[in-house]
Amino acid sequence: MSLASCLVFPDFTPRPHLVVAAAAPHEKLVARAAERLGAPVPCEEWTVRDLAEHMMTWTPVLAGSGRRTPPAAGTPKAEGDWVATLDAGRDDMVAVWSDPSAWEGTTTMTASELPASMVGTMVLCELVLHAWDLSRGLGEKVTWDDAVLAEMLEAMQQMAPLGRGSAFGDEVPVPDDAALLDRVVAVAGRDPAWRP
């Protein structure tokens, strides 16, 4: 019996149109990350290196999941020409999940069968949150259009409760009039005011 048949998941809205926009800041941030691998990031006790290696691990898994053939997660290191490796992997993942067909039916990540729209939403959340994480660790500014962030807030409000205590921390309170990006990261358990 599959995990998907045992658990009830929300009906995630397919959002292939957001994938390119969500990924847009990454190329610049990852290039900058190569110069600051030891800098802290908002993920507890992680550095830029840890975050880069996390992205290098899961980017090919998420891309493969969109194709219905995810590889086993590896243990890549931020060594050698890792920036080019991560950039190529991200471009592949973005291309896969920008195709509406990737969001249909079910797929797998490692051994678990999941709704494809849920995995696609994970992709969006990873792209936005990790760009924000990098931007804070590197002291860079990151922005997305409000239209993108409004949809991301809805997606995060669906996704975050499923991963509390693992992928996401407890929601951080923010004012009702907080900026959209602050609300997105707060739902994910990040403190929008975090600084190194």
Automatic annotation (TrEMBL):
Top-level division of the source organism's lineage: Bacteria
InterPro entries tied to this protein: CHP03086, DinB/YfiT-like, Maleyloyr_isom, MDMPI_metal-binding
GO MF terms held by the record: metal ion binding
Domain spans labelled Mycothiol-dependent maleylpyruvate isomerase metal-binding: 27-134
Name by which UniProt lists this protein: Uncharacterized protein (TIGR03086 family)
Source species: Actinomycetospora succinea
